[in-house]
Amino acid sequence: MSSVSLFSPLVERAIEVAAEWHDGTYRKGRWTDPCVSDPGGTPSRVPAMAHVTAVALTVQRAGWGDEAVAAAFLHDTLEDANRHGDALGRPTLVALVGEEVTRIVEAVSEPKRDDAGDWLPWRVRKEAYLRSLAAGPVEAVAVSLADKLHNAYSMASSLEAGIDIFTSAPGRRALSAGAADQRWFFEAVLAESRSGKDARLGPLRDRLRAEVDRFAALAGVDSAME
């Protein structure tokens, strides 16, 4: 694994690919005040690129190298379609950023549809994600922890602001699962991450633990102790 350099062509390429792929796609909701509104007064939505950037910066600040940071920028590209509904295939990602980065991204990607093209149930997708994470490289654990940390932080902050994240409303889509299921998944990722012995995972686990506890308290569900 390479160390983080002042400028990384690999990370720059990952940013470019992520920005292109996620262009015109958005987070399910927001808890912060918007900086712009459309002419009708509807608050702007948060671009998906804001999420992947937060995840990548967290991975970098935790001390991981260029491949892990690049994978963090790209962690949703294999999993999520672009605004046209297209899927990004593994061979294409390998051609863009290489096998090592793609292997990390693949380990933190869940299947969305079955072989017939039908949507898989939420729990089935998450269980497949956990199996993939367990078989992946340690860098994937770092990306997963940073991803779930940002998700838990956003969810808890939304609840704290009085936003019902489990119900759809104008400009907001409800989460795909309820509070108890969301807590289960966070706890399962934390449990799986303990197989990774790299010391750089510790601070990520600790901060995710705190955000999961905050989410659980605000959502009214018990948070399992590690």
**Major beta-sheet overview:** none
The first-level CATH class name: Mainly Alpha
Count of separate structural domains:
1
Rg to the nearest angstrom? 17 Å
H/E order of the elements?
A: HHHHHHHHH
* Number of alpha- plus pi-helical segments: 9
CATH homologous superfamily identity: Hypothetical protein af1432
Dominant shape: globular
Low-confidence stretches: none
Look at the helices and sheets and give the structural class. mainly alpha
What is the mean pLDDT?
A: 94
Terminal Cα separation, in Å? 30 Å
Number of strands: 0
Helix content: 40-55%
Strand content: under 5%
Write the CATH architecture name: Orthogonal Bundle
Structure description:
The protein has 226 residues and is mainly alpha-helical. The chain has one domain: Hypothetical protein af1432, CATH 1.10.3210. Helices cover 55% and strands 0% of the residues. It is globular. The mean pLDDT is 94.
